[in-house]
Design brief:
Layout (H helix, E strand, L loop, with lengths): L5 E5 L8 H8 L5 H5 L5 H10 L5 E7 L5 H10 L8 E5 L5 H10 L3 E5 L3 E2 L7 E2 L1 H9 L3 E3 L1 H7 L4
Length: 156
Amino acid sequence: MRNKPNIAFIDIDNTIADTSNFLKRNGNLNSSIDYLNIDVLVGSRNFIKEKFKDTHKLIFLTHRKLSIKKVTRKWLIKNNFMENNSELFLVANPLDKIHYFKAALLSGCNISILDDLSYNHENDNIIFYKDVINFIKENKLNYFDYSFIMHLNSNN
């Protein structure tokens, strides 16, 4: 019997990239250079290296415009996230992440998710993507959520 493949779906903004603090300091992200200058969340990067690096295929799945896919990949490489078997997917709507989770479930994969599933941090009024969170909980996926991410990075 074959072992089930392990997949880690990892979000970028406010999960591994300190996007909200960048926005608070600098305003909107206006250019590709802005995206390259977002600080990494070191606690999240360390967690990924310890928990997933040698045991999971890393799939970076994030809600960003397709026009910045290239600069997003550059940021991942610059900050030592991209491995040989890593992939990057951008979705137009956070709900689209559910399609990726369903496909992995149907393929029989063991799924872990590191994703804050929230937005509006820069305005100090955090809103959660409850439909996606509910799907994750209903399917009993291994989920590392907003609180977990905040705890990982509380010493940075």
